[in-house]
Amino acid sequence: MENLFDPETVVIVTGSSSGIGAATVVKFGQKGVNRFCLTGRNQQGILDTQQKLKSINPKAECVVVIGDITLQCTCESVVSHTLEKFGRIDILVNNAGFYSFESVRNAPIEHFERIMDVNLKSAVVMTKLCLPHLEKTRGNIVNNSSVVSLKSYSNTAYYNMSKVALDMLTKTLAAEEGKSGIRVNSVNPGIIDTPIHEMSGFPKDQLDRSMEIHKKVIGRNGTPEEVANAIVFLASKEASFITGSLLSVDGGKNCYQRLFGGLHLWSREIVYLVGDFNRGVLSMCSYAVNSACEVKKTKQLGIHILMEPPYLFDPETVVIVTGSSSGIGAATVVKFGQKGVNRFCLTGRNQEGILDTQQKLNSVNPKAECVVVIGDIALESTCEEIVSETLKKFGRIDILVNNAGFATYGTVRDTSMDEFDRIMSVNLRAALMLTKLCLPHLGKVKGSIVNNSSVASLKSYARIPYYNMSKAALDMFTKSLAAEECKNGIRVNSVNPGVIETPMHEATGFPKELLDRSMAMHKDIIGRNGEPEEVANAIVFLASKEASFITGSILSVDGGKNICHLI
To answer: Using one digit for the tens of pLDDT, what is the confidence trace for 379-435?
Structure first.
């Protein structure tokens, strides 16, 4: 297994006595981290977390600080005891959270102050204390936010406000600290089975109603382990070009329609369970599925945490990657091979490039088998051949990566409609055609789709208007398809790269002086352009079992370009 963390890595996780915090500690331990600071108010909970950690990583050493994270003295104690024991800090996870369920009209101002102190102020204090030490190790911060920061929900106004402010801390701090080598990201969970709901006084009927909405989306609530997977990925070397990003881990709640005054439910009533409860870390609850495919919690389990499985994919997994002759496509094929995938369809127009990719794949995974389709992805006949040849060879399709892309350089005034048609055909229509052909087969295996979009979909850039438009439409395709296909067990996500070192720039005729200027802007955030392998890491994560509760999400892999203001 790849080592995602240095042997000396030290991790602080606030609110680590239960729920997402406890699961995050355990997940870091499974990934080889041996040094921790655990902190929270519940001493017994912290001891339970420590016991779970030791059960899967006997080498783990822990500093334990029991206290209220809203107190300055507690934050100072967390940092000083960690440094006294380990001499460094590499990762800070601001996880502690609290909310109450009540309207603005009825909620006392003291509740506002408590929520802001726990959810926001404590994160700021911990961050300020840790920054000098994170700079020494070029470390990173992951803030645990919420889906409520992305859309408003009634009766949790103070919580909503605290989380949207936390997201802005993530973005602002990423912009400020990129020059120091510190990455800052956020996870935004949906409804997760944790004790926080009971503590908040969330009415059971309201929670049940929210669960019903999830049944139209991904069929269940999330588990703490699924959020922990995202936190650990963002903190790892595999997320080295991701900063200032908000990753929704919400089962598609972010792409579900919500109307003023109520919730708009999709018309179909199909419910399903994503088959991911055998992925190496068992939920602290067991689940059953009845004949109507309804998810029901059956009982609370004891500690049943297994060692991290060596592979994130089933042995029979089949992956299609378009545009796999070079750049991000080629790197994605190799990364899947490193993670244990053995069956591929490689496709592109450049036959020599495809053969080079196949050679690199076989060098990291000699067991890998490939179907090769040489052709123009914009042609429907090519898309049909990709699907038919893959099914003929392997009999199934598990993952589709719509990676092929094309751009030209010029203004709306001086670029032709032929260029518009070509860009839309390659970047958008081809993805749509191939997706439509793959959907029946992806549904059979509860598969997933990852679309390779661009930071250009998130903010407009001059002189690439058609590219901007195609990628913005591709993002909406991701969200819409995620909402439609979750009932069939198919997850759909997007990666949105910034400036990546690939042959695409030369092919577009992008002027060197503008590319250099773009690089100069990157130096304000993370200091360099990205590598194809860094985007591939994100694609493979989103396609894997570890992203089982992520769908409809747009993940920026851009070195902070999405938070860099253009003047």
So the answer is: 999 999 999 999 999 999 999 999 999 888 888 888 898 999 999 999 999 999 999
DSSP, res 406: -
Q: Where are the domains of the chain?
A: 10-197+224-252, 318-563
Mean pLDDT score, 286-313: 41
Please tell me the distance from the alpha carbon of residue 343 to that of residue 445, in angstroms, as a whole number: 15
The architecture in CATH of the region 318-563 reads 3-Layer(aba) Sandwich (3.40)
Residue 261 has pLDDT above 90, yes or no: no
Residue 409 a catalytic site member: no
Q: Would 10-197+224-252 and 318-563 be classified into the same CATH topology?
A: yes
- The CA distance from 121 to 113, in Å, is 10
| pLDDT tens-digit readout, 464-505 | 888 888 999 899 889 989 988 988 999 999 999 988 877 665
CB atoms within 10 A of CB 70: 19
| Amino acid at position 394, single letter | F
Cα–Cα distance, 479 to 385 (Å, whole number): 27
| Neighbouring C-beta atoms of residue 23, cutoff 10 Å | 30
- Looking at the domain that runs over 10-197+224-252, which CATH code has it been given? 3.40.50.720
**Residues 214/281, Cβ–Cβ less than 8 Å:** no
Which residues lie closer than 8 Å to 560 by C-beta, 6 or more apart?
174, 175, 178, 243, 244, 498, 522, 525, 526
Q: Which of 158, 159, 466, 467 is catalytic?
A: 467
Alpha carbon of residue 175 to chain centroid: 20
Q: Please say whether the beta carbons of 148 and 163 come within 8 A.
A: yes
